[in-house]
Model the fold of this input.
Amino acid sequence: MGTREIKRVFKNEFDVISSDRKTFAVFLLGPIIVMAAFGAATMQTRPQLITMSVAIVDEDRSPLSNNLVARFEQSEYVIVKYKTDRATAEQLFQEGKIDAIVIIERGFDNKARTFYLYSSESEKARLDLIVDNSYFIAPVAVPLTLQTVMIDFYLKDLPKALGFQSEQITAEVVQQLVSRLQVVYVDVNLAYGKDLPFFTMVFPLMTPIVLFTFGLFMSGLSIVGERVRGTLPRLLKTPIRRSEIVLGKLLVYLGIAIWDSLVVLLLSAFLFGLTPKGGALLMFLALFLTTYTGCTWGMFYSTFSKTERQVTDLKSYTTLVLMILGGVVFPLSIMPEPVQVMAYVLPLSHSVNAIRAATVKGLSPEFIVGDLGYLFVFGTALLGLALISFRYVKD
Amino acid sequence: MIAVRNLSVVRGKKTLVQGIDFTVERGEIVGILGPSGAGKTTIIKVLTTEYPCSPGQVIIGGHDVATQARSAKQIFGYVPQEHQLYEDLTFLQNVMYFGGQYGLDQAYLLERAQRMAMIVELGEKLNEKVGRLSGGQKKRVSVATALAHDPELVILDEPTSGLDPATRRALWKFLKSVNQSYNVTMIVTTHFLDEAEFCDELLIINRGRMVTYDSPRNLKMRMPGEGKAIELEMFTLDDYVSAKLSQFESKAKKDKVVEMVDRSGYRVKVFCKDIPAATAKIPHLLAEVGLGFKAMNIVDTSVEDAFIYLTGERYKEEE
Done:
């Protein structure tokens, strides 16, 4: 091995990649953008990744319920995003904006006191926890949350509320309290997909990214392929309009997108037992619109890229950023508000939402239609961008 | 058919071509000639609506290419320098696709494709993938593709570039036959000056400027010997002979015997108005500078001679 030869190849390779400014810019900026997305998505998350965002419904509004709310706020496994009423919390929960609802029922304080001080036969204070089971993080976070929240509540808040002074909380008292930990009845209700197979649970996470990437890769090489082959300049000297080239090519990929979506739906249903609870048609639309958005995004890249390498690099980084911000790797609910806004602007979060709603959650169509509409609008906007971009690119 | 008025093309801060004027009549073959980088492809790009002219005007078949590009495109077929074909598709598929852009009926196009395949003598290759054809065959497929919609005008950008001499001649023979059989107007760029003879008119450009626009015959007749020159065959051509030839040229020009001497090879071309008189004087002038020669002949002038005469520059054919 000659070092001089290696140096020559090194210099040549550097010259080649740096001569293509777009590719070089993607090489240099790509990791920064991906890391920025990664950092932004996880910056609010505590050292323990297993964190769930909750809405607390405090119907009792008593000193004791206040203490309990404070305990939730202090828990490192919980991000209290909303303190609201039950109806609003349920709405937020269905929209996927929170992972769980904590409901402290009216009479919580009274029932706890009565139960502890007077009658163990009386009705217990009740704490309801409704947890979104469609993400894998929430169910794991529940026991950890309850462990941290309830122990401090029992050992510190409850004795104080019952009139014990700090110095009175001796080992004996604690022993007595621990034996009466049943003061609060905690009802954990796992919403969505309680008994669903693993495939169904993973389906909303994997399918959007797979179909989107297919669409992006398929159409990404269409116009740039003509450029590289040299057929585009010739084609542009015929009476065909640039917009006709874009739309004609896109139609092919949309045909393939229909086929892909059907195959995914049928194989999942008949081979892997997936039940599209929201209806097969809505499910198909969710899959198709995801691929459609990928196709128009790829077409947009294709209109201004000069080489296949430029498109390939752009596609790879786009997929990574969308995976991070699209709710595939991390739940959107754990992200800071501004990042969530960005995530909701991007199409993949809507694909995940729609497909999850149609499979795991089994929500009614009105919860899915919004996301589908957004996907259609976003994909069509990208198509518009592609048409504008192709019009002004010099070929 | 085509009217080009004061055509200039400026890209960024660079002026690519300037002050080009010419008109083309229906059925003519017009050659755009010039050395590499002269601006031939730029003119083609304007004619094919790819570049705007700034300023200037190009009218094709009554349509201004700047404002009626789509109508102008209906009139011409284009044969690019490279093949620019879909190599994974067949000859037929290529013709059908490119021809289809002109809004023609599929059945008509199929018939045209078959006829074009016969004309370019590739009838048996109609269903062959273009990628499997030879360079010369691809070029013919490219021409057939440009002719598919029966255009009045075909614009060919360096069609013979990269072809061997035999294939070049064959392609020109074919272009001529198409031109004559179908009265198709042709604009052809080339950097091979010997191909000028196939053209009815020549637009000669150099360094982005128009040198002249005339027929090959007129170009030669406009030279001092009205199409004739004296060719001196030297024994050798070294630095000594070259220096002596310079002395001869200065003296002969001073005595008004010759107008120009082309000393590019050991066959030296001498251009003069009065050939018989010069034939008598040249041996004496050469003897005066101490130079002998092997033979002296009267020869026909070529377009290359005209280029050198008009530009004062040697023509460089290499790409």
